[in-house]
Design goal:
Blueprint lengths: L19 E4 L5 E2 L2 E2 L3 E4 L3 E5 L5 E5 L8 E5 L3 E3 H7 L8 E3 L5 E4 L8 E2 L5 E6 L2 E6 L10 E2 L28 H18 L1
Parallel strand pairs: 11-14
Antiparallel strand pairs: 1-4, 2-3, 5-6, 7-13, 8-10, 9-10, 12-13
Length: about 190
């Protein structure tokens, strides 16, 4: 697939999202710094088959660096509720919140944004809501990605990455979690002896 929308077979496959305006009460500091109090969600976003994984989100318009791309939406669950609900599920669309107690069970277009070790977007939690921001200029037709930085999961799950970027770490886990997991595995093996 090329980066041109013209290479797609049918526009009937495209799922558009119209622009929305979201107003927040005040500027807040998030994981990525201070964001504007009024956030304009741009987007003309479509979901289409992805070379990274299954389906992905693509923009039909150029996006400027620092623009708000989309909000990650869905029901709020406690971590325990999510663990119970998805205990035997091979795939989830859960986004952990900063409080460490809740997750968003993604049900909107943002749930289709794939992981990349060389992303063009980043998430930021503002007043308990998660927004995806562009970290560089993004061309029309480009797939939207962010670094998942996974931080939990079964020790035998490597959460393989298929982004194919030059700096791919071969896992969707954060660098900190990748460094921590061998120690946890060793500790678990010792306990099982």
């Amino acid at each position: 697939m090329t980066s041109s929308l013209g290479s797609w077979r049918s526009t009937a496959e495209l799922l558009p999202l119209n622009s929305t305006i979201v107003t927040l009460s005040a500027p807040q500091s998030g994981t990525s710094g201070t964001r504007a109090a009024s956030i304009r969600l741009i987007m003309a976003i479509v979901v289409h088959p992805s070379r990274i994984h299954a389906y992905g989100c693509y923009t039909t318009e150029p996006i400027q660096k620092a623009a708000t791309v989309i909000e990650y939406t869905g029901p709020r669950l406690t971590v325990d509720e999510a663990d119970t609900l998805y205990e035997n599920s091979p795939r989830t669309y859960l986004f952990g919140l900063e409080d460490g107690k809740q997750v968003i069970d993604g049900d909107g277009l943002a749930a289709f944004i794939n992981h990349s070790c060389d992303p063009n977007c980043e998430p930021d939690e503002i007043n308990g809501r998660v927004f995806i921001f562009a970290i560089r200029d993004i061309k029309a037709g480009e797939e939207l990605t962010y670094d998942y930085n996974l931080y939990d999961g079964e020790l035998d799950d490597v959460a393989p990455c298929s982004c194919r970027s030059q700096n791919c770490r071969r896992s969707m886990y954060s660098e900190t979690e990748i460094a921590r997991r061998p120690k946890l595995k060793s500790r678990k093996r010792k306990l099982l002896r």
